[in-house]
Amino acid sequence: MSEAAAATVHPDHILKELSDLWVSLGKQQGGAGVLRACTMTLVVAAEMGDDWQGLGETIAALMPEHPARAISIRLSGAGERALSERVYSQCWMPFGQRRQICCEQVELTASDAALLDLAPVVRSLAVPDLPLVLWCRSGRLLAMTEFKTIAAMTQKIIIDSEGMALADVARCAPPGVLLGDLAWTRLTRWRETLSQVFENKETLARVDSLHQLTVAHTKAQTNTATYLAAWVSTLLPKVKVTLAPDETCDSLRVSLSGDGLEVRMERQQERLAVNVNGLAHFAGLSMFTDYSMLREELGIMQRDPVFERVLARAVESAYPNQ
Question: Residue 152, Cβ neighbours under 10 Å: how many?
Answer without folding.
Answer: 14
